[in-house]
Design goal:
alpha+beta, Thrombin, subunit H, Methylamine Dehydrogenase, Chain H, 4-stranded antiparallel β-sheet, repeat, Nucleolar protein 10, WD40/YVTN_repeat-like_dom_sf
Length: 688
């Protein structure tokens, strides 16, 4: 069981963990549970709560005893009994199910709309009747007062099938080219359908007339939304007599009051994916909307996010168990997910033990997996001397670093710096002593880190206080007393480096201003050493001299920047000279390279040529080989290209080939000479 938390809302995933195969014996299952901790800790709420490949729709019967799901492959429906926590039955179908509806309180009356234009009726014993509708259907709703089924799909008509008379009635003619979804209000039985043009048409089943039209596509486009095409309606649900939620194919959810044509709230999922399902949670006034990637729960009055869930696999349908905090999803995976959120409501009666289990987990929180591991970067590994472990099982790569066992990290740190604990202990003692000293009456002391910056801030605060007194304004809070910037004057890592290039170029007058502050710093340190309580002003130049000096500084800031740049260039030249001297002093050791068997070393130019050749494109390499004669490209009669090439041989193979060729020529000459001698001897005998 996995536990996640978002906005302080705990979500328990009850279907997390591996599932055991059905064909395993009980003995092997027990053995696996003893060995594997994950299998032992998993919770199998309903046995075999899954589909062979994919689950598409999931619903709960009105009495809450049965959970029904459809999926593939092969197309089938499975019914699970919550009282027995196991599967009740399974029925295979002829074609895939688009959607289905449970007409009775239990599983005795079910209607399936299939992708092949078929409408299949099932009773308690199994298949009952099958018929077809004229066009491909996408959704249907059941009108209880008249026993009519309303089918919408790839047509402008809404087909009506009366189950009492057993025949089709006159269809409703709409203005839409196609319809995607439909729903009937449970209070006043208003029929609403969402079209492909992004509109919602409302019809009165009693008079069979259209009573309203909403343009949701226009209302879904706000200043923050970005859409590529015309939004169509992908989800539609009623809540009570007056509220209606509409989901679009571009990822927006619109909440309407039927008395107004403008939406109350427009909520964007920010994924651009069609909304698959919308559910209302009345206890907390929440709306649960889902696309194929995320499930969001948000307040229907304010639109504020309550919590969200992102399953591992794509979502096809979401079902909220009535009057509880349990949520079930049909996914693009065999396993159907079950989530329990205690904030939404209690656990159902058939699994009331979940409340006790979650309470125990909240009382005794377990340490997470990451508590046993330490995240380190490559620089940390270099400092610890553990770079040789990269690529081994002791380090697990993650983002810009690695996870390693905390015990190994502590051992390596102790070996790298054995006196680290003593230094840490001294630092802690020093901090505690300073905390006790802070309670006494102290002199005006400057912090140990960034003293010059602190002095500058004190001077500026004094000037601001004088200005505010004259103007009779409120004093602004001190930066030195602000807890947010406290670490900047305590941690030595935040020390300003005045010798850096950026500091010297961005602050051209720092050198002259810092001299004044350094004088004051020396005087303050002397006063602190003597233990004097009153601070005296340093003897120096008069105020007129200081004002003239500041004016000269303002005029000559350009010259100061130029001087700083010249100094930086001179420093760079000196560094280059030092590097060149070091390079001259270092002795270059000879490097040896191993040559493969069957190859001879000619020069380093060959390797450079090969590297240049490999950088070229395939077209350039083919042209070069065609010039050298190793490749011949010709057109065929069909219109395609034919390429013939010769394999390059190594130097050793070439010499061997030449030796074989010479040997063959010698043998030919010997044979010819032998034949010539035989012919001469034969002629001599004839003459004798």
């Amino acid at each position: 069981m996995q536990v996640s938390s978002l906005n302080e809302v705990k979500i328990y995933s009850l279907s997390a963990g591996r599932s055991l195969p059905e064909w395993l014996s009980d003995r092997k299952k027990r053995a696996l549970q003893k060995k594997d901790v994950d299998i032992r800790r998993r919770i199998e709420l309903i046995q075999d709560f899954e589909m062979p490949t994919v689950s598409t729709k999931i619903k709960v019967s009105r009495d809450g005893q049965y959970i029904m799901a459809v999926g593939t492959y092969k197309p089938r429906v499975r019914c699970f009994d919550t009282y027995q926590l196991s599967q009740k039955f399974e029925r295979c179908l002829d074609s895939e199910v688009v959607t289905f509806e449970i007409l009775s309180d239990d599983y005795s009356k079910i209607v399936f709309l299939q992708c092949g234009r078929f409408v299949e009726f099932h009773s308690q014993h199994g298949h009952y009747y099958k018929t077809r509708i004229p066009k491909f259907g996408r959704d249907f709703s059941y009108h209880y007062p008249s026993c009519d089924l309303y089918f919408v799909g790839a047509s402008s008509e809404v087909y009506r099938l009366n189950l009492e008379q057993g025949r089709f009635l006159n269809s409703l003619q709409t203005e839409a080219s196609e319809s995607n979804v439909c729903d009937i209000n449970p209070v006043h039985f208003l029929f609403a359908m969402g079209t492909a043009e992004g509109k919602v048409e409302c019809w009165d089943p009693r008079t069979r007339n259209r009573v309203g039209l909403l343009d949701c596509a226009l209302s879904s486009v706000t200043a923050d939304t970005e859409i590529d095409g015309l939004p169509s309606i992908s989800a539609l649900t009623f809540d009570g007599a007056l509220n209606m939620a509409v989901g679009t194919s571009t990822g927006q959810v619109l909440l309407y009051d039927l008395r107004s044509s403008n939406p109350l709230i427009v909520k964007d999922h920010h994924y651009g994916l069609p909304i698959k399902s919308i559910q209302f949670q009345r206890q907390l006034d929440l709306i649960i909307s889902a696309d194929s990637r995320i499930i969001k729960m948000w307040n229907k009055d304010t639109g504020k996010i309550f919590t969200s869930m992102e399953p591992e696999h794509g979502i096809n349908d979401v079902c909220l168990y009535p009057n509880s905090g349990m949520l079930m999803t049909a996914n693009e995976a065999p396993k159907m997910n079950i989530y329990y959120i205690p904030v939404l409501g209690p656990a159902p009666k058939w699994c009331s033990f979940l409340d006790n289990l979650t309470e125990e987990l909240e009382e005794n929180p377990e340490s997470t997996v990451y508590d046993d591991y330490k995240f380190v970067t490559r620089k940390d590994l270099e400092n610890l001397g553990l770079t040789h472990l990269i690529g081994s099982t002791l380090l697990r790569a993650y983002m810009h670093g690695f996870f390693m066992d905390i015990r190994l990290y502590h051992k390596a740190k102790m070996m790298a710096n054995p006196f680290a604990y003593e230094e840490y202990r001294r630092e802690k003692i020093r901090q505690k002593i300073e905390e006790t000293r802070a309670q006494r009456v102290q002199l005006k002391k400057l912090p140990k880190v960034n003293k010059e910056l602190a002095l500058k801030l004190i001077e500026e605060e004094g000037e601001e206080q004088q200005m505010t007194r004259k103007r009779k304004q409120k004093n602004l809070p001190s930066l030195l007393k602000d807890d947010r910037f406290k670490v900047m004057f305590e941690n030595p890592d935040f020390q300003v480096d005045e010798q850096s290039e950026e500091f010297r170029l961005l602050n051209p007058l720092v050198s002259k201003i810092s001299e004044k502050r350094k004088r004051k710093l020396k005087i303050l340190e002397e006063l602190e050493a003597k233990g004097e309580e009153e601070e005296e002003e340093p003897e120096g130049k008069a105020s007129d001299a200081e004002s003239s000096e500041s004016s000269d500084d303002e005029k000559g800031w350009v010259e100061e920047v130029r001087k700083q740049r010249k100094l930086l260039r001179q420093e760079e030249k000196l560094k280059r000279r030092e590097r060149s001297k070091e390079d001259q002093q270092t002795l270059l050791k000879p490097q040896f390279f191993e040559i493969k068997e069957g190859e001879e070393f000619r020069s380093f130019k060959d390797s450079a040529k090969k590297q240049k050749l490999m950088k070229k494109t395939l077209e350039d390499r083919l042209k070069l080989e065609e010039k050298l004669g190793t490749l011949n490209v010709s057109d065929t009669t069909v219109g395609s290209k034919q390429a013939t090439f010769k394999l390059k041989k190594s130097e050793q193979q070439r010499k061997q080939h030449e030796a074989e060729k010479l040997h063959r020529q010698e043998r030919k000459t010997l044979r010819r000479s032998a034949n010539h001698l035989k012919s001469k001897r034969g002629r001599g005998r004839l003459f004798h």
